[in-house]
Design brief:
Helix 3 packs parallel to helix 9 and helix 11 runs antiparallel to helix 12. The protein starts with 23 loop residues before the first helix and ends in a 5-residue tail after the last helix. The chain is globular. The protein is an all-alpha fold and 280 residues long. Helices cover 57% and strands 0% of the residues. The chain has 13 helices and no strands.
Length: 280
Amino acid sequence: MTTEQTPRSPACPLSVGSPSDTTPYAHYARMDELLALQHPLSSAPTEPGFIIMSQVKELLFKLLHTEFSTARDQLADDLLDDALWTLRRAARVQQVLLVSWETFSVLSPVEFAEFRDVLGSASGFQSAGYRRLEFLLGNKDPAMAAPHRDTPGYDAVVGQLHEPSLYDAALALLARRGLLTPDDSTDRDVTRPYRGGAEAEEAWRSVYRDPVRHRDLHLLAEALMDTADQFARWRYTHLVTVQRMLGAKPGTGGTEGVAWLARISEHRFFPELWSVRSTL
C-alpha cells in the first residue's frame, strides 16, 4: 500500500528570485531601497518627516499620472465606463494627496526654520512629476518646462507637453458624440492648451441640460469636476500651509512664495465645466 503524500503548494511568486538577505515582500516592492532614501542634512527632528512626506507626494504624483494617462487613453478608445472607473480610483489618490499637507501644516515657523537653510535652492516648483500632471490635465505652457532643463526629468516633461491631455480626450469624445465640432486640423499645436471657449461650454451645457439622455457624459463631466475640485483644494491648502510656516517670506528656491501660490490657486482645470454652471 502506498502512502498518499500531500501535494506541495507552488512557490509563492514573491519568493522566486528573492535575495536571502531580505523578505519576499521587501524585495517585491523594493522596500529596503525605498527606506534608505532619507538623508537629513540637519539635526532638526522634524526634517526626516519633511523629507518623507515630500517623497510620499512624489509617489502620489506618479500614481496619479498613471491613472490619468489610463483614463485619457480609455476616453480616446471610447471606453467611457472604464475611464469613469479609473477616475474613481484617481479621486481616492487625490484625497490622500490633499491630506498629506496636514503633516506640513503642523510645523511651526521655528521648527521649519531649523532646517530650511539646508534646502538651499530646492523647491517643490522643481517637481517634474507635478509638472507632468499639470500638462497631462491640460494646463500647458512650454515655458514651464524650462526649470527642468539639464535634469533627468526634462525629456519626460517635454514629452508630456507634446501629448494630448485628458481634457483633449474628453472634448474629442464630445465631438464624436456630435456635441462639438470635430477638430480635423492636422497642425494643431498640442503643446498649447486644449481648444476651449464658448463652443466647449455649449457642449457641456447640452450635457447638463439633459443628463438622462447624456447619462454617461454627465457622469464624465462630474468626474472631471471632482478631479478639478480636488486640485483646487490641494493648491489652496498648499497656499495656507506656506502662509502658516513662512508668512510673506520668499519661498524656497527663490520663488515668490505666498504671492506666487495665491496666483496659481486661482487656476481651475477644465474651465468650461466651471463657467457652464453660471448658465444653467
